[in-house]
Specification:
Length: about 550
């Protein structure tokens, strides 16, 4: 990866922002509202210091700012630069704020002149800032301009950015998601991130309908409300905002289904069974039916749970759902007074038992096993998911980065937009077939080596360049038969979302014998996870050598 170098242009961030506006103006003219078009026109007419200041605020965290914290040499006086922004209505001067917002803007020392006497009378003069804020907020819940909280206009005024939502919409339209942000440009320009150059036409874009953008933003708002520690009020607000009917757009519907699933998990953790069942019933998320069965069982609705489990097993969403339901079904059948099905086959796997003393410098148990098993003629490597995924990515690079319609629409993509969506493989079947055919005639080694050399450091969802070096790659190519790689890659491709994880921790090679084994390590009290069980069962079925190493500590 090339070393990072300073950016010579002090207005690089402004150029990047204007690049996005030009990009959207060229590709989304029909989906931009009059307000959004108007902003683009008016923005270009402002003096450069004002444009730069606005972009600095857009790219920083939050919406509230102090002029004295907006000191940038290339911009100059932030108060002067802000005047056109205030006139345009994009920045609010001396905004009305709550106590908690004020405490986020100023230090405790800066707040003392305004609140010191009140806090002292309450015995909180030396209390933590959070305690002081909670006390004042309980007595002063209203909002008022910053200047009124202090009793006079401060030397350095405060501002509130008013166009955050507008810029988030621009960012969403450009990236196709809200996960990526403006730092992508900087990381790429510094050489820290390098992306594959994929040809895509000017007509290629993430959204075809404005309503899809609106729906995405609405679902994103629900996602923010459904954080892990969300309170019931926030969950209820999110539930009220989730559309009752499924979306016609499969991508949006998958997001809606995930939201309903998350809401169901929230209710389930609080033993709100009816609410949880309602969420799961409405969700098409791959895990929703199994959770629904579990909730019905907790409600002692054993017949309903059994019926749903049998229906799901007749047409399972994936291997994980089958595995979960098969584990629950015997118990449900017993509750219903019905004979259980044949017990699930026991997972038979080569077992390696080790007793290893804890070293003076505690380390991960995988590292302990690696050191114990290492031999000069049989080296061991910690690879987990990186090796199989990496070799797959190197072999199938051309198929993964093929310019399939609607797969690529901006220059910062480490994978096609539909990588984890249904139909990814089908839309590229001929390309993947051509890649896999190289495993039959021996060409795969040259392809993998060439892409390892030519694509080194390029961002790819299948590659962890720090975990896959040339020596490890060459050992893998020498010791893992192409038939095994074909089997491993086939399972990965059939369900990338589920199967790109769960692979064994270690791999050991015997180069002189051109053989290997994969090793899943379990420390004291640890057990195999479901996705690990599925991978191990698949490997055993297809003759791929895998062992499970159980580590114990010596008796004290």
């Amino acid at each position: 990866m090339p070393p990072a170098t300073p950016l010579p242009n002090p207005f690089y961030y402004l150029d990047n922002f204007e690049f996005v506006l030009d990009w959207l103006r060229a590709r989304y003219p029909d989906l931009l509202s009059p307000v959004e078009h108007g902003f683009m026109r008016e923005f270009g007419c402002l003096p450069r210091p004002s444009r730069a200041l606005l972009v600095r605020m857009v790219m920083r965290k939050g919406r509230l700012f102090r002029a004295d914290r907006l000191a940038y040499p290339e911009i100059g006086d932030p108060v002067a630069a802000s005047a056109p922004l205030i006139s345009a209505g994009w920045v609010e001067h001396d905004p009305a704020v709550r106590i908690d917002e004020l405490f986020g803007l100023y230090t405790r020392a800066e707040l003392t002149p305004a609140f010191g006497a009140q806090l002292a009378s309450a015995g909180l003069a030396r209390a933590a800032k959070q305690a002081q804020m909670d006390h004042l907020l309980s007595r002063c819940p209203e909002t008022q301009p910053v200047s009124l909280w202090f009793g006079a206009e401060r030397e350095s005024p405060a501002y509130r950015l008013q166009i955050t939502d507008l810029c988030d919409r621009y960012r969403l339209m450009f990236f196709g998601n809200l996960r990526q942000d403006w730092t992508e440009f900087v990381l790429a320009e510094l050489g820290l991130y390098v992306y594959e150059q994929v040809d895509f036409p000017p007509s290629s874009r993430a959204f075809q309908l404005r309503t899809d953008i609106d729906d995405y933003l609405g679902l994103h708002r629900c996602t923010e409300l459904l954080e892990t520690d969300a309170e019931d009020d926030a969950v209820n607000e999110a539930m009220a905002a989730i559309p009752a009917s499924p979306f016609q757009n499969p991508w949006l519907e998958s997001r809606r289904a995930r939201l309903l699933f998350r809401a169901g998990r929230h209710h389930e953790r609080r033993h709100q069974w009816d609410a949880a069942a309602s969420c799961y019933e409405r969700s098409s998320h791959a895990e929703a039916r199994a959770r629904h069965v579990r909730v019905l069982e907790r409600q002692a609705r054993f017949k309903d749970a059994t019926r749903l489990a049998l229906d799901a097993l007749a047409a399972p969403a994936d291997e994980a759902e089958t595995q979960q339901l098969q584990r629950m079904l015997p118990r449900l059948l017993r509750h219903c007074g019905m004979p259980p099905d044949q017990p699930a086959a026991r997972l038979e796997v080569e077992r390696l038992d080790l007793t290893l003393a804890q070293g003076p410098c505690p380390s991960r148990v995988e590292a302990e096993v690696l050191r114990h098993l290492w031999q000069d003629d049989a080296p061991v490597f910690y690879v987990e998911n990186s090796l199989v995924n990496g070799l797959f990515g190197l072999l199938c690079w051309e198929a993964v980065f093929a310019p399939v319609p609607a797969a690529f629409f901006h220059p910062f993509q480490a994978a096609p937009a539909d990588l984890l969506r249904p139909g990814f493989h089908v839309r590229r079947k001929a390309l993947f077939d051509a890649c896999f055919s190289q495993l039959d005639d021996g060409r795969y080694r040259d392809t993998i080596r060439k892409n390892f050399r030519d694509k080194a450091g390029v961002q790819c969802s299948f590659l962890n360049w720090q975990a896959l070096d040339e020596a490890l790659m060459e050992l893998a190519l020498a010791c893992i038969p192409p038939e095994h790689l074909s089997r491993l890659f086939a399972r990965l491709l059939v369900d990338i979302r589920s199967n790109r994880s769960g692979l064994p921790d270690l791999i050991q090679f015997w180069p002189a014998e051109q053989r290997y084994r994969m090793i899943e390590v379990k420390g004291p009290g640890d057990r195999l996870q479901d996705n690990q069980r599925r991978w191990i069962a698949y490997c055993r079925e297809h003759g791929i050598p895998v062992s499970v190493c159980h580590v114990r500590r010596p008796a004290s």
